[in-house]
């Protein structure tokens, strides 16, 4: 199926649907962002300016979608975080919304429903893996939160001590110490 624009020109069907995904805090600062289209928002400065503008337009709004700088942006807010998924202006909003829902639900499951800035920062590695499991280079790989989390969750308890990274060993030690203090 070939899409047509208002002017009558044709858009070739493509798998490269997602132009970017990001999570911003309640002040509009970047927590995590990933952009997939090399032709738009090419520099970090452009990306951060776009994110600031996006946040300013959406943080008080009660909608779920906005057209900004030629991009269709769907978003969701929670406590002190804003989740965004961007696609081209002619992209199907329902597909972008399903990616956003997959992102939010995956992060929510991953963080045991404790979706807030501090917890995301503590688990940033797993959240980065979640981004990668959902979308690769703009192509949607998966939209089922359970399967995404199954692949993105870092399982330190299953990995032998000799194969764990220093961060994983420290995290495991922290967990053990926390549980011993709670007993």
SSE arrangement, N to C:
EEEEHEEEHHHEEHH
Distance between the termini: 61 Å
Beta strand %: 15-25%
Number of helices: 6
Overall number of domains: 1
Largest sheet properties: 5 strands, antiparallel
Structural class: alpha+beta
Helix-residue proportion: 40-55%
Low-pLDDT stretches: none
Overall pLDDT: 85
Strand order in the sheet with the most strands:
4-3-7-6-5
Q: Given the C-alpha coordinates, what overall shape results?
A: globular
GO biological process, one term: retrograde vesicle-mediated transport, Golgi to endoplasmic reticulum
Domain AP complex mu/sigma subunit: 18-156
Subcellular location: Cytoplasm; Golgi apparatus membrane; Cytoplasmic vesicle, COPI-coated vesicle membrane
Membrane topology: Peripheral membrane protein
Task: Give an overview in words.
The longest helix is centred in the middle third of the chain and has 18 residues, at 93-110. The protein is of the alpha+beta class. α2 runs antiparallel to α4 (124-134), α2 packs across α5 (145-152) and α4 packs across α5 (145-152). The mean pLDDT is 85. β3 and β4 (30-35) form a beta hairpin. 41% of the residues lie in helices and 23% in strands. Strands 4-3-7-6-5 form a five-stranded antiparallel β-sheet, with helices on both faces. The protein has one domain (18-153). The protein has six helices and nine strands.
Write the layout of secondary structure elements.
Elements: E1 3-4, E2 10-11, E3 18-25, E4 30-35, H1 44-58, E5 65-68, E6 71-78, E7 81-88, H2 93-110, H3 117-122, H4 124-134, E8 135-136, E9 139-140, H5 145-152, H6 166-182
Antiparallel strand pairs: 1-2, 3-4, 3-7, 5-6, 6-7, 8-9
Helix pairs in contact: 2-4, 2-5, 4-5
């Amino acid at each position: 199926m070939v899409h047509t624009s208002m002017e009558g020109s044709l858009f070739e069907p493509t798998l490269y649907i997602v132009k970017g995904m990001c999570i911003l805090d309640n002040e509009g600062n970047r927590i995590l962002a990933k952009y997939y289209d090399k032709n738009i928002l090419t520099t970090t400065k452009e990306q951060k300016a776009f994110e600031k503008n996006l946040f300013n337009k959406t943080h008080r709004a009660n909608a779920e979608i906005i057209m900004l700088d030629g991009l269709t942006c769907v978003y969701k807010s929670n406590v002190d975080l804003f989740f965004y998924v961007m696609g081209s202006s002619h992209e199907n909003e329902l597909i972008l919304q399903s990616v956003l829902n997959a992102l939010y639900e995956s992060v929510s499951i991953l963080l045991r429903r404790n979706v807030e800035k501090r917890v995301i920062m503590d688990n940033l590695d797993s959240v980065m893996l979640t981004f990668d499991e959902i979308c690769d280079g703009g192509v949607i790989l998966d939209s089922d939160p359970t399967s995404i989390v199954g692949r993105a969750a870092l399982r330190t308890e299953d990995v032998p001590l000799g194969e764990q990274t220093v961060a994983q060993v420290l995290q495991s030690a922290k967990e053990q110490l926390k549980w011993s203090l709670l007993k």
